[in-house]
Amino acid sequence: MSRTIDVLLPVDQAEGTRSQVLRWLKAVGEPVKRHEPLVEIETDKVTVEVSAPADGVLQEIAAAEGTDVEPGALLGRVAPTAAGSVAPSIAPIGVAAPKAALESQAAVTAGRRASSDRMSPAVRRLLAEHGLDADAVKASGEGGRITVDDVLAAAARPAAPAAKGSQPAGVAEPDGIRRVPHTPMRRRIAAHMVESLLQTAPHVTTVFEADMAEVLAHRAAHRQGFEKRGASLTLTAFFVAACVDAIRAVPEANARWTDEALLLNEQIDIGVATALAGRGLVVPVIRNVASLDLFGIAAGLGELVERARDDRLTPADLRGGTFTISNHGVSGSLVAAPIVINQPQSAILGIGRLEKRAVVVERDGCDEVVIRPRCYVTLTIDHRVLDGHQANRFMEVLVQRLEGWS
User: Fold this and answer.
1) Same domain, yes or no, for 88 and 190?
2) Which residue among 123, 173, 251, 281 is least packed, with the fewest CB closer than 10 Å?
3) Mean pLDDT of all residues in the chain?
């Protein structure tokens, strides 16, 4: 028998997180090609694919689906083949597989591979989460590809009546409760939130209100020019830029607590919370924001959000943030407090919905009621790192930058 090559979870694929084997894309005995996706690994941040290290056949699966794995862990083994040769089918170690069984398995896996090759990881994951068969989803993508929207549309349709005695996952049971199993991503997000809020950091939130008239005027004047240069000028980009000034005034907001010392980050790397429809939340990071102008921030932000929604983020895109922004106002929320801090960071900024409000202003010694575009902004802090006056100073600088935009 040929020597085997270990398939390992890369050390840098899961820094600071736990990982779980989500799905094997090949079955034992199937031919594989070098660099072909072999297995999907899911963390609380992102799903990544581990590729085959060589041409050959998948000889062994060492970590079954649903198994927690650590960086460097053995996932499986590939038996390599010489270039141009046809790899024989190999049964799992210690198991003698009859020829008929192998032929049957090959037919099934060949069909599955032909279908899955046309689907992105996001589509495959959504199919699994909703318990859907790809053959039951109407494809609208180019060349007959199934898109994320196709899967979500199929999942939204009423389920067919179940056969007597059967109980599909996610369907209402006799007690009137609809049970939907947690996805690995949702489990890990939940664990991360509990650890941050209840086991790590004392959370305190301060609330300010910002007048966005100057920002909106600047955006209206420059939006078309940004688009011609390939960047969408969103309101979030202005908040990212304003955070640079606020962090410079209060560097503790860009710090990390340890039992021995407070670690102040010299570089400002801001993560922007991004919701993925039906799947959870990720926080891709814009690097070295202080070195970027508004266009650079808008371009970087747009690229990251697009890649997040297309499920093309890598672990490196999510690693090493020093401060986080959550623009919950895009979904209609006015105020959210506390927003759970993204450990091991020390603060998180929340942005509420922008709306026109009646405001009292003084002109020539008289009070007047005027209509202004305003939104609430919150800063939730780790009270071990920052005190209330520091949080308020941060917010003062942030609001002043937004209201005096030029």
Assistant:
1) no
2) 173
3) 81
